[in-house]
Amino acid sequence: MQATKCAGVGCKINEHVRCGISDDADAARLENARLRQVYRRGDRIFTQAEMASGLYCLQSGHVLLWYLDPFGHRTAFRVAGPGEIMGHRSLFGEDPHAATAEALTTCHICWYPKGLVDELIGTYPSFARRFLRTLARDRGPPDALLLRGLHMPIRVRLVYLLLILRERHGEIWRDGSLHLELPLLRRDIASLLGARPESVTRAIQDLKRDGVATFNGRHVVVSNLEALYNEANQEYDLGLPDSEEIAHSG
Amino acid sequence: MQATKCAGVGCKINEHVRCGISDDADAARLENARLRQVYRRGDRIFTQAEMASGLYCLQSGHVLLWYLDPFGHRTAFRVAGPGEIMGHRSLFGEDPHAATAEALTTCHICWYPKGLVDELIGTYPSFARRFLRTLARDRGPPDALLLRGLHMPIRVRLVYLLLILRERHGEIWRDGSLHLELPLLRRDIASLLGARPESVTRAIQDLKRDGVATFNGRHVVVSNLEALYNEANQEYDLGLPDSEEIAHSG
DNA sequence: CGTACCGTTGAGGTGAGTCAAAGTAAGTGG
DNA sequence: CCACTTACTTTGACTCACCTCAACGGTACG
Description:
homodimer, Arc Repressor Mutant, subunit A
């Protein structure tokens, strides 16, 4: 893929910009900072777990956005086409990319540096509003809980839920046991896990049988916190898959 | 639930604001416009398919966010706790609420009118940046495709995918048939559907057998478009469930 | 003390995953 | 232009986690 500065048109960011940037100097600066690259099928525009360096705008071609979940499953969630922007979520979220963008066909893609985008947002409110709207409408990779729902057994999903709710609803006692007071009914747990209440009950019984956690109504006791973590970590990693893994998949 | 103006503190929006609003008059206006309400378990803060009127900020208590999918399944995707904001997605997206917010416990919730929030975003860039960050980090209800992934058979998910890709990749011929040139491999389709390539193949065979659509490599022909729509509509509605339905569920 | 709602338990069916192997298309080098 | 390699697709047999339906036990509340 070769990089060239270009003065072409048809870039969505320019549209985002035009409706707001009144100063010609700013418009020119944006135009100058713009970089156009060509990608071929299979090329990566950006990669999961990398930090975001700027904003991408697809001029032609198609891009598949997917992430590698803790199972090593490649899960796609968006097909981007001409005129769409990419990488905005991690740019504004100040998080590493949650997904990998991969060219499905030959693509012409514009890139704008993060610093300049930031600056223009400070200067032009309508620019910011545009992105607020874009972000609000576009849903990134599905939330961890549901994402895993597709591949993880309910028992493991339940453990993840406990680990997530631990921060806000958990309390560790002197003896090292974790106590949780859940504000959720069984049917609420079920709908968070994408399962049926009966299945949740059964998963709860499983955890009790194996001495991982005990549920009494909405009160949960995890006597052996380590066992809970093992439950989640044993087969699947809690954290992001490392970049090595991502680099070799797909 | 009773509504009162209040001068209390501990509201996240105020935090969003404080770091940016330098003008005392603006700060006071925001404080005055603020409305505090009390909700009890089961009360709805807002309801799916309603238009957003403002921004909600949870001061105490817990709220479950869920939506009714086309199956009539209640699918929860977030438990909001003290300090979190709600309704921002539909506010900035200028879309109706995609979900219903329901109090799990007694809640104290602040509300700020849309107009004022808009105005402040125009005045204070740091205010806008805060929300850009919040929006980028929070994932709303999962995307339509994946959302349905939990409950729909693969065959139906595949039909939805075709209907979605129709806009960009489809072309209707003279004879009324729909032709799609997908830029996707089987494994890409599979990962969009949350399924395995083998299962996608089988679903494709099913559709061919029933005369709904024919796949030749990446070229898809839907001879009877109506049949495709029926496939999606028969059991489940494509659009939002009507508010009547939402009002009576849960 | 009855009426709801919630939670649990059991029996039975099935959609989709897994594994393995054969078939097909696409791309490469001589 | 044809052999060869590689990657993608299809098919079949098997297994199982979860859903469905249905009944029963528990607890809260009027």
